[in-house]
Structures are given as structure tokens and as C-alpha cells.
Amino acid sequence: MSRSVLVTGGNRGIGLAIARAFADAGDKVAITYRSGEPPKGFLAVKCDITDTEQVEQAYKEIEAEHGPVEVLIANAGVTKDQLLMRMSEEDFTSVLDTNLTGTFRVVKRANRGMLRARKGRVVLISSVVGLYGGPGQANYAASKAGLVGFARSLARELGSRNITFNVVAPGFVDTDMTKVLTDEQREGIVKQVPLGRYATPEEIAATVRFLASDDASYITGAVIPVDGGLGMGH
Question: What is the pTM of this model?
Fold first, then answer.
């Protein structure tokens, strides 16, 4: 059965790989994006998830085209890395507003339809940094760690309605964001990873699609690391 799937921040990197994985499986896929030209082949809706009105309007457009969202992948996020003593309050609060509160906004709105249907799949994209920390990333790590408590609370709250909430925590992934690093920086990162390489976006997408499948119907409140062993034990 073709499902109505929404991937926030689905215009590039991990989000785009996730959107393609669901589309390839025959699902009706909508993506949100903030700027630039969105990729072809999806219902692309411009939406800043820090704005509740834009989130509401995005859902209305998606519901009109695809019906209520049955699978939500909350992927949209930002970074503003800075050492604590140089980090402004705006640097801290704006990252939390997008990564954590923005996820609250899109999940709350999706749950309106999921509660009516008495079923749903929600997957939140966190990070290995949220579990094991990173210097200069106190804001980002706090926002990504917050997703774990958020998902597990909702797994308990809404499990009786057959709505599952799970978290995927990627490690270092080969995307445009990591391609700007120098060869020396990339080499230093790879040395920390037991598998000795970066992940591909498609490897993250495969895990996300599994969690949204019937094969994962008895998994909820889980945090699945896809990090080559980088964060094991955290």
C-alpha cells in the first residue's frame, strides 16, 4: 500500500536519500525545504519549521495532495557550532528552536491524523553527537539529545494508539556538509570510526525505512546508531 510520507528537510543530503528510499518503495513522498530549488519527483513544500503557521500550511497542502501523513521523518536541522565562551544566546536558542522545538511542531501536527487513524510511524533523526558530545557543539548536541527524551515520552504516551516513535542517530555521513572539510580533518574523523569510513546517506535511509516498515511494528522508543561504531557504549 502506498503511504503518505513526509520528510522534513528532504531537499538534500540524508533527507533526500530518505525521501528517495520511500519513493522507490512506492510511497507518496512530500518534502519540506527552506531555500533553493527542491529536487524533482516529490511534493515539495516550502516551510520553515520554526514558524507554526508555515507548518500548518505545509500540512494542509500535503493532506490535500496525499492525504493525512502516515509516516513522518523529522530530519530538518541546523548547526551553529561555537565554543561555549563565544556562543551567543541566539546561537544556542536558534539551534534548539529548529532541531528540537521544530520537531515538536511537525510531530504534534502529524499526530492529529495519526490519532484519527489509530496508526502511524514517526522517526526522528538525531546524531551520534547527541549521545556522546562534541566540543563546540553544546547547542547542537543538546538539541539532538533532547530528541531521545521527546521520542521515548511519546512512545509511552501514544503506543496504545499504534503509533511508534524511534530515533536514528547517524555518525559521520558523506554529504555536502562533510565535503567542505579538509583531507586532514576527514582523515582524523575516520580514525575514530571502528569501520574506518564515512556512512553513505543511503545507509541511513535504509535504517529509517526499516523502522517505518511492518517488519518494525514492535519497535518503539528505540535509538538506533548508524555510526560505524563511533558512539558505541553511549
Answer: 0.95
